[in-house]
Amino acid sequence: MIVSSKKTFFNTLLLVSSLLFFSNMFADEISYSLSMPKPSTHYFHVQMIVSKIPTKMLEVQMPAWTPGVMSITDFARYIIDVNAYSSDHQKLPFHKIDKQTWQIENGHYSSVMIDYQVYASSQPATNTSSLTNNSGFINGTSVFMYVVNGKDSQSNLTVNVPQGWQILSAAGKLGQHQFTFSNYDLLADHSIQLGKFYSTPFNTDKTHDYLSVTGDYTQQSIKLLLHETQLIEKTAESMLPLIDTKHYTNFFQFIPNIKDPDGLEHLDDFLIIDNQPLTSHDGKSLDNTIDGYPLMWVIAHEFVHRWNVKRLRPANLGPFDYSKEVYTHSFWFVEGATSYIGDLILLKSGLWSKQDFYNHMSQQMTLLNKSRGQFVRSMEQASFDIWLKDQKGGPFWNSVWSDPHIKGELICWMMDLSIRHLTHNKKNFLDFFNLFYNRMYVQAKPDSYYLKGRGYTTQDIVQALQDTTQTDWHEFFKKNIASPGQIAYGYYLQYAKDSQRCGVRCI
Q: Which pTM does this prediction carry?
C-alpha cells in the first residue's frame, strides 16, 4: 500500500522527536524512506531524514560510482525535484555547489528532510537501478544520497512497495521492508529486488541463502541453477575461512537484448545479469555464458568476492570515497585471486574436470597474448589505471592495455605452483589466501568505522606469501607485478606434475 509521502515523513519526524526526548542514540542515525508511487514513470521517491545536525549548513552528496565497477557514472545526473524541509514543514533554502553536492541552509533547525526523485532505467545494469511496471532493483549508490562527513552514521531504511509486490534484500528475509545498517557504506552495499520474481530459500552447510530470478527461465533450468549455485557455495565454504554473516542472496536477471551482461559483487549478495533466457538443452548443465565465460564460472567468481575485496580489501577500497576515483596497485589480486579461487572451487566441486581447468587457462593465455599491452604496462600500473578501462576504443587499445583480470588470474596460478614447489607440496595458494584473510580481516585492528580489519598494501601480500613459504617473494613480484612483460609460463609449469597435459605451449 502506498501512503502519502509527506504525511509519512512528518509522522516519522514526530516519532523521531519523541525518541530524542528519551534517548540520545538518534543523533547517530539517518533515516531513509524509499517508494515508487508510479513505477511506469521509472522514478523512485526518496526521503532522507537527518537529525541532531550540529551546524547551520548541511551538505548531502550523490555517489559518482559504484564499488566493483571502476567507472565514473555520476548518479547525480538522474536526480530531480530536490527539496529540503524543516521539522515544522518549512521549505529550506539550498543550492547545488558542484555536480553531485547540495548545500542546505538549515539555520537553527537541527532536523531536516531531503526529498528527491531518482530516475531508474527499464534496462537493468549491474551498477545502476532499474524500475518497470512489474519489478525494480536497487543498487544503493545509484539511489541514496549521504551526508558529507557523515557516512559513519547508522542508516535506517524503510521500503514501501506497490500492492502485490515482493521485496527481497540480503539484509533481511523475504518480505522484510525495514532495515538497519551501521553505516552508509553497508546500506549502499546491500541490493534489493522488488516486484514480481521467483525466489527460493536454500541452505549451505554454514549459511541460510536465497536464490532470486527475474526474466526468462524454465522450471528445469531453475532446478539446475539452484543445484550449481548451492554446490559452488558449499564447496567455497569448505575451502575458505568462516564468514561473519549467516546469510547470502544470489540475484539473477535473464533479460534478452540487455546491452551489457555482467556480474557484480556486494557484501552479502551478488547480481548477475544475462542477455539470454536461462536454458539447458541437455538437462544436465546450463547453456548460459556471459562474455564468453560459463555461467557457473561467473557464479563462482562473484561468490568468492564475498571474501576477496568485500572483506579482505586493499587500502582505499572500504570505506569509500564515492565522490571520485580511488586508486590501488592491487586490482590484479582483487580480480585475479578471485578468479583463480573460483577455478579451484569448480574443480573441487566436480563441475569442472582437470581438462576443463586446463582448457580455461589455455583460453586465458590466448586472450592475454592478443594484447601487446602486457609488454608495456605492468600489473601494478594496470591496477592503478583500471579507471581508464571503460574508455577503451580504437585499434590501438590492445597495444597499451594489459588486463589485470586475466593476467592476475594467471599470475595467481603461477603463485600456486611456486608455493607448492617451495613447500614440497605441503602448502598451496589457499593456505596463503586463508592466512592473509585471517591476518588482515579477522585479526587486524580496524582502521575505520567500516568493517573489521584494515586495508592491505602490496607489501602485506608479499609478507603473507613469505610467511607461508619461508621464502623471499620480492623477485617474483618484481618480475610479474611491478614490471611489464610476458609470464614465464614454462618456468613455473615445470613445477606441476601434470604440466604436459595442460594443452598449451609453455613459452
A: 0.92
